[in-house]
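Quick bug: HTH cro/C1-type domain-containing protein output formatted oddly.
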Amino acid sequence: MVHGGMTVYEAAQEIGVDPIIAQLRLPDLCVTAPPSVVAPTPIPAMLPGVLRRMVVCVVPVPAYDQLRSSGNILHAAASALCAGLSQPLPEQAKGKSLVSRRPLAVPVPAEACRPLLNLAREHFGGDYHRAGGWAIARGVGMALLLPSKDDLVQPCPAPVVVAAPQQPPAPPARTFAPPRRRPDTRAPLPDDSSVPNGDELRTRREALGLSQRDLAAAGGFSRGLVAEIERGRRRHILTRLRMSETLVALERDCPSAPLASPELEPVLTAEPEPTAQ
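Here's what came back:
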């Protein structure tokens, strides 16, 4: 297919787009001519860094809201851009503009490329993004003036170096040792030689005629504990002392005759019955 004396591939290479995209939609910048014309039609200058004439314009927020309410925002923005570029230029503003802006990608028609570049070069310092947004705002009816030199020059603010506040040095961490529990004061144990051993306790028990079970019931021991003490397997002083005191109490209760085993157990284990009043 030949357009304006050029093939699709040549036209795509000329305007800087992909040949596949050019086959889908040939840009309007390639003005078609009759096939008899061999020389290609001169192509207007393209905007730098754009693809298929899509320009990102920074549009004032009131104009952006008005375009969005129109339905097709891209078609309305392109029409407003052409209308704004065709209007006579107003006066130059004296101060800075405080209007907020929003970016909008607008398809710029071929006939509006050159006026947009001229407007950006003459009054916007070459910033065609802001020039396009200004023209769109003028096209929708906003009364905007040309930006002043102070508004165009936006120097980068010097970086403010904020010194970090110096904090006082943290005190060293203090370690606290938990207070140790003082050992409980215990009564001193009696001398081991002053307490009878297992053989002596067994001899005294047999002299009273008591069995190991009787002595265990009288002193609150178990029979196995009595047997182990008498055999010498349990040699704790306090246990032997308690058993000796039990034998002394039994000897005091029965000083003359030894108690028989069947008669001693009820007396030592049974509780006294309450007397009727």
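Actually, after a second look the formatting is fine. The chain has three domains: 1-43, 54-152, 192-269. Closing.
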